[in-house]
Amino acid sequence: MTSDSLLQRILQESHEMGTAEARVARFVSTQPNQVLHMSMAKLSEECDVSDPTIMRFCRRFGFQGYQDFKLYLAQSLVPSAPFAYEQIVAGDSVENIVRKTARNSLNAIQRGLEDIIPAQIEAGAKLLNGATWIGIYSSGISEITGVDAEHKFQRLGLRCAAVNGRKKQWLHAETSKPSEVALIFSQSGHTKQMVEVATAVRARGARVVSITAADSPLASISDVLIAVTPYERTELLTPIASRLNHHLVVNMLVTSMAVISGSEFPDQLPALDSWQTDKI
Protein backbone atom coordinates (compact mmCIF):
# COMPACT_ATOMS: atom_id res chain seq x y z
CA MET A 1 0.00 0.00 0.00
CA THR A 2 1.50 3.35 -1.06
CA SER A 3 1.07 6.67 0.72
CA ASP A 4 -1.40 7.75 -1.97
CA SER A 5 -3.52 4.62 -1.53
CA LEU A 6 -3.43 5.00 2.26
CA LEU A 7 -4.51 8.63 2.11
CA GLN A 8 -7.16 7.72 -0.45
CA ARG A 9 -8.49 4.99 1.83
CA ILE A 10 -8.62 7.44 4.72
CA LEU A 11 -10.62 9.89 2.61
CA GLN A 12 -12.93 7.17 1.28
CA GLU A 13 -13.61 5.59 4.65
CA SER A 14 -13.99 8.91 6.46
CA HIS A 15 -17.63 8.97 5.28
CA GLU A 16 -18.26 5.79 7.25
CA MET A 17 -16.56 6.99 10.43
CA GLY A 18 -18.08 8.52 13.47
CA THR A 19 -17.72 12.27 14.05
CA ALA A 20 -14.57 11.98 16.19
CA GLU A 21 -12.72 9.58 13.88
CA ALA A 22 -13.73 11.66 10.87
CA ARG A 23 -11.95 14.66 12.42
CA VAL A 24 -8.79 12.57 12.73
CA ALA A 25 -9.15 11.39 9.12
CA ARG A 26 -9.58 14.95 7.91
CA PHE A 27 -6.48 16.18 9.73
CA VAL A 28 -4.25 13.24 8.73
CA SER A 29 -5.25 13.40 5.06
CA THR A 30 -4.61 17.15 4.81
CA GLN A 31 -1.54 17.43 7.10
CA PRO A 32 0.31 14.09 6.82
CA ASN A 33 3.77 15.63 7.24
CA GLN A 34 2.70 17.46 10.38
CA VAL A 35 1.35 14.22 11.87
CA LEU A 36 4.84 12.68 11.65
CA HIS A 37 6.06 15.13 14.31
CA MET A 38 3.10 14.79 16.64
CA SER A 39 2.65 12.52 19.63
CA MET A 40 -0.65 10.70 20.01
CA ALA A 41 -1.57 13.11 22.81
CA LYS A 42 -0.84 16.09 20.56
CA LEU A 43 -2.89 14.65 17.70
CA SER A 44 -5.73 13.90 20.10
CA GLU A 45 -5.63 17.50 21.30
CA GLU A 46 -5.47 18.89 17.76
CA CYS A 47 -8.48 16.83 16.64
CA ASP A 48 -10.34 17.20 19.96
CA VAL A 49 -10.66 13.43 20.40
CA SER A 50 -9.55 10.85 22.97
CA ASP A 51 -6.48 8.60 22.73
CA PRO A 52 -8.69 5.50 22.24
CA THR A 53 -10.19 7.22 19.19
CA ILE A 54 -6.72 7.60 17.68
CA MET A 55 -6.00 3.92 18.39
CA ARG A 56 -9.30 2.89 16.82
CA PHE A 57 -8.49 5.00 13.76
CA CYS A 58 -5.05 3.34 13.34
CA ARG A 59 -6.40 -0.19 13.76
CA ARG A 60 -9.08 0.48 11.16
CA PHE A 61 -6.27 0.55 8.57
CA GLY A 62 -4.46 -2.52 9.85
CA PHE A 63 -1.90 -0.96 12.20
CA GLN A 64 -1.32 -2.21 15.73
CA GLY A 65 -0.98 1.27 17.12
CA TYR A 66 -0.16 4.91 16.51
CA GLN A 67 3.62 4.44 16.25
CA ASP A 68 3.20 1.72 13.60
CA PHE A 69 0.87 4.03 11.68
CA LYS A 70 3.35 6.92 11.86
CA LEU A 71 6.29 4.75 10.82
CA TYR A 72 4.47 3.53 7.73
CA LEU A 73 3.30 7.05 6.91
CA ALA A 74 6.88 8.39 7.20
CA GLN A 75 8.27 5.66 4.92
CA SER A 76 5.52 5.91 2.36
CA LEU A 77 5.60 9.71 2.09
CA VAL A 78 9.11 9.53 0.58
CA PRO A 79 8.57 10.22 -3.13
CA SER A 80 9.16 7.32 -5.50
CA ALA A 81 10.12 6.96 -9.15
CA PRO A 82 9.37 7.96 -11.79
CA PHE A 83 11.15 11.20 -11.17
CA ALA A 84 8.91 14.23 -11.50
CA TYR A 85 10.57 17.63 -11.71
CA GLU A 86 8.37 20.55 -10.70
CA GLN A 87 9.64 23.52 -12.65
CA ILE A 88 9.85 26.82 -10.78
CA VAL A 89 8.14 29.54 -12.78
CA ALA A 90 8.19 33.32 -12.63
CA GLY A 91 4.89 33.60 -10.76
CA ASP A 92 5.84 31.21 -7.96
CA SER A 93 5.67 32.47 -4.40
CA VAL A 94 8.62 31.98 -2.06
CA GLU A 95 6.60 29.24 -0.35
CA ASN A 96 6.29 27.38 -3.69
CA ILE A 97 9.99 27.86 -4.41
CA VAL A 98 10.89 26.32 -1.04
CA ARG A 99 8.45 23.43 -1.51
CA LYS A 100 9.42 22.65 -5.11
CA THR A 101 13.16 22.82 -4.42
CA ALA A 102 12.86 20.45 -1.46
CA ARG A 103 10.48 18.05 -3.23
CA ASN A 104 12.63 17.94 -6.37
CA SER A 105 15.66 17.11 -4.23
CA LEU A 106 13.80 14.37 -2.36
CA ASN A 107 12.60 12.90 -5.65
CA ALA A 108 16.14 12.89 -7.03
CA ILE A 109 17.53 11.12 -3.95
CA GLN A 110 14.73 8.54 -3.99
CA ARG A 111 15.38 7.84 -7.65
CA GLY A 112 19.07 7.41 -6.86
CA LEU A 113 18.25 4.94 -4.09
CA GLU A 114 16.22 2.86 -6.53
CA ASP A 115 18.62 3.12 -9.49
CA ILE A 116 22.16 2.96 -8.09
CA ILE A 117 23.63 -0.56 -8.06
CA PRO A 118 25.73 -1.29 -4.92
CA ALA A 119 28.01 -3.72 -6.82
CA GLN A 120 29.03 -0.88 -9.14
CA ILE A 121 29.90 1.34 -6.17
CA GLU A 122 31.99 -1.48 -4.71
CA ALA A 123 33.83 -2.11 -7.99
CA GLY A 124 34.54 1.59 -8.42
CA ALA A 125 35.77 1.97 -4.84
CA LYS A 126 38.17 -0.97 -5.19
CA LEU A 127 39.64 0.32 -8.45
CA LEU A 128 40.05 3.85 -7.11
CA ASN A 129 41.52 2.65 -3.84
CA GLY A 130 44.28 0.78 -5.66
CA ALA A 131 45.29 3.64 -7.95
CA THR A 132 48.63 5.42 -7.58
CA TRP A 133 46.92 8.61 -8.79
CA ILE A 134 43.33 9.55 -9.64
CA GLY A 135 42.56 12.08 -12.33
CA ILE A 136 39.06 13.52 -11.88
CA TYR A 137 37.56 14.74 -15.15
CA SER A 138 34.35 16.68 -15.78
CA SER A 139 33.04 19.65 -17.72
CA GLY A 140 30.55 22.45 -17.19
CA ILE A 141 28.60 22.40 -13.97
CA SER A 142 29.84 18.86 -13.24
CA GLU A 143 33.22 20.44 -12.39
CA ILE A 144 31.70 21.31 -8.99
CA THR A 145 31.21 17.60 -8.33
CA GLY A 146 34.76 16.91 -9.48
CA VAL A 147 36.19 19.42 -7.02
CA ASP A 148 34.06 17.90 -4.25
CA ALA A 149 35.48 14.45 -5.08
CA GLU A 150 39.03 15.81 -5.09
CA HIS A 151 38.60 17.36 -1.64
CA LYS A 152 37.13 14.20 -0.12
CA PHE A 153 39.60 11.81 -1.74
CA GLN A 154 42.52 13.92 -0.54
CA ARG A 155 41.17 13.77 2.99
CA LEU A 156 41.36 9.99 2.67
CA GLY A 157 45.06 10.40 1.88
CA LEU A 158 44.70 9.56 -1.83
CA ARG A 159 46.80 11.21 -4.53
CA CYS A 160 44.36 12.86 -6.89
CA ALA A 161 43.49 16.06 -8.73
CA ALA A 162 40.42 17.56 -10.35
CA VAL A 163 41.59 18.27 -13.90
CA ASN A 164 39.52 21.01 -15.54
CA GLY A 165 39.78 22.63 -18.95
CA ARG A 166 39.96 20.86 -22.30
CA LYS A 167 43.70 21.41 -22.96
CA LYS A 168 44.75 20.44 -19.44
CA GLN A 169 42.54 17.36 -19.50
CA TRP A 170 43.97 16.24 -22.83
CA LEU A 171 47.55 16.72 -21.60
CA HIS A 172 46.92 14.61 -18.49
CA ALA A 173 44.99 11.94 -20.40
CA GLU A 174 47.75 11.49 -22.99
CA THR A 175 50.38 11.04 -20.28
CA SER A 176 48.39 8.59 -18.13
CA LYS A 177 50.15 5.58 -16.60
CA PRO A 178 48.80 2.01 -16.23
CA SER A 179 48.68 2.34 -12.43
CA GLU A 180 46.42 5.39 -12.60
CA VAL A 181 42.64 5.70 -12.73
CA ALA A 182 40.47 8.37 -14.36
CA LEU A 183 37.20 9.19 -12.61
CA ILE A 184 34.86 10.83 -15.13
CA PHE A 185 31.58 12.61 -14.40
CA SER A 186 29.03 13.11 -17.19
CA GLN A 187 25.26 13.40 -16.85
CA SER A 188 24.46 12.18 -20.36
CA GLY A 189 27.58 10.17 -21.21
CA HIS A 190 27.46 11.70 -24.69
CA THR A 191 29.80 14.66 -24.10
CA LYS A 192 32.49 14.34 -26.79
CA GLN A 193 35.20 15.83 -24.57
CA MET A 194 34.69 13.22 -21.82
CA VAL A 195 34.51 10.32 -24.31
CA GLU A 196 37.79 11.48 -25.89
CA VAL A 197 39.44 11.73 -22.45
CA ALA A 198 38.34 8.19 -21.57
CA THR A 199 39.63 6.87 -24.90
CA ALA A 200 43.04 8.56 -24.45
CA VAL A 201 43.37 7.34 -20.85
CA ARG A 202 42.67 3.72 -21.78
CA ALA A 203 45.03 3.93 -24.75
CA ARG A 204 47.82 4.62 -22.25
CA GLY A 205 46.88 1.59 -20.14
CA ALA A 206 45.12 3.46 -17.32
CA ARG A 207 41.62 2.52 -16.14
CA VAL A 208 38.37 4.48 -16.27
CA VAL A 209 35.58 4.74 -13.70
CA SER A 210 32.65 6.71 -15.07
CA ILE A 211 29.65 8.08 -13.23
CA THR A 212 27.22 8.53 -16.07
CA ALA A 213 24.16 7.21 -17.89
CA ALA A 214 24.00 3.52 -18.75
CA ASP A 215 24.02 2.62 -22.46
CA SER A 216 25.93 5.79 -23.32
CA PRO A 217 29.15 6.13 -25.36
CA LEU A 218 31.14 6.94 -22.20
CA ALA A 219 29.68 3.94 -20.35
CA SER A 220 30.64 1.60 -23.19
CA ILE A 221 34.36 2.44 -22.93
CA SER A 222 34.62 2.48 -19.12
CA ASP A 223 36.28 -0.23 -17.04
CA VAL A 224 33.78 0.40 -14.27
CA LEU A 225 30.42 2.08 -14.79
CA ILE A 226 28.42 3.59 -11.96
CA ALA A 227 25.13 4.16 -13.70
CA VAL A 228 23.09 7.19 -12.68
CA THR A 229 19.88 7.79 -14.59
CA PRO A 230 19.96 11.18 -16.35
CA TYR A 231 17.01 13.49 -15.89
CA GLU A 232 14.89 14.89 -18.65
CA ARG A 233 16.03 18.03 -20.46
CA THR A 234 19.43 18.16 -18.72
CA GLU A 235 20.93 19.61 -21.88
CA LEU A 236 18.64 22.63 -21.49
CA LEU A 237 18.20 22.87 -17.73
CA THR A 238 20.64 22.10 -14.92
CA PRO A 239 18.54 22.16 -11.75
CA ILE A 240 20.18 21.23 -8.46
CA ALA A 241 18.12 18.04 -8.34
CA SER A 242 19.79 16.70 -11.49
CA ARG A 243 23.23 16.93 -9.84
CA LEU A 244 22.45 15.60 -6.38
CA ASN A 245 22.95 11.93 -7.16
CA HIS A 246 26.45 12.47 -8.54
CA HIS A 247 27.36 14.07 -5.19
CA LEU A 248 25.74 11.14 -3.39
CA VAL A 249 27.82 8.68 -5.43
CA VAL A 250 30.98 10.55 -4.37
CA ASN A 251 29.97 10.10 -0.73
CA MET A 252 29.19 6.42 -1.31
CA LEU A 253 32.60 5.91 -2.92
CA VAL A 254 34.45 7.74 -0.17
CA THR A 255 32.77 5.70 2.57
CA SER A 256 33.28 2.43 0.68
CA MET A 257 36.95 3.26 0.14
CA ALA A 258 37.32 4.04 3.83
CA VAL A 259 35.84 0.64 4.69
CA ILE A 260 38.22 -1.08 2.26
CA SER A 261 41.20 0.68 3.83
CA GLY A 262 40.07 -0.35 7.33
CA SER A 263 39.08 3.04 8.68
CA GLU A 264 37.57 2.94 12.17
CA PHE A 265 35.11 5.74 11.31
CA PRO A 266 34.32 5.27 7.60
CA ASP A 267 31.39 7.67 7.44
CA GLN A 268 33.00 10.54 9.35
CA LEU A 269 35.54 12.46 7.29
CA PRO A 270 36.63 14.67 10.21
CA ALA A 271 37.72 11.51 12.05
CA LEU A 272 39.91 10.63 9.06
CA ASP A 273 41.27 14.13 8.70
CA SER A 274 44.54 15.02 10.41
CA TRP A 275 44.14 18.69 9.53
CA GLN A 276 43.22 21.06 12.30
CA THR A 277 41.18 24.20 11.75
CA ASP A 278 41.39 27.35 13.83
CA LYS A 279 38.13 28.42 15.36
CA ILE A 280 37.17 31.70 16.97
Question: Could you characterize the architecture of this molecule?
Answer:
With 280 residues, the chain is an alpha/beta fold. It folds into three domains: 74 residues, Orthogonal Bundle (Arc Repressor Mutant, subunit A); 36 residues; 157 residues, Glucose-6-phosphate isomerase like protein, domain 1 (Rossmann fold), CATH 3.40.50. The protein has 14 helices and five strands. A five-stranded parallel beta sheet has the order 2-1-3-4-5, with helices on both faces. The termini are far apart.
List keywords for this structure.
3 domains, WH-like_DNA-bd_sf, DNA-binding, transcription, 280 residues, five-stranded parallel sheet, Arc Repressor Mutant, subunit A, alpha/beta, Rossmann fold, single chain, 5 strands
Question: How many helical stretches?
Answer: 14
Shape descriptor: elongated
Low-confidence runs:
none
Strand content: 5-15%
CATH fold title of the largest domain: Rossmann fold
Name the structural class.
alpha/beta
Number of strands: 5
InterPro entries: Homeodomain-like_sf, HTH_RpiR, RpiR-like, RpiR-like_SIS, SIS_dom, SIS_dom_sf, WH-like_DNA-bd_sf
Domain HTH rpiR-type: 4-80
Domain SIS: 123-263
Pfam families: HTH_6, SIS
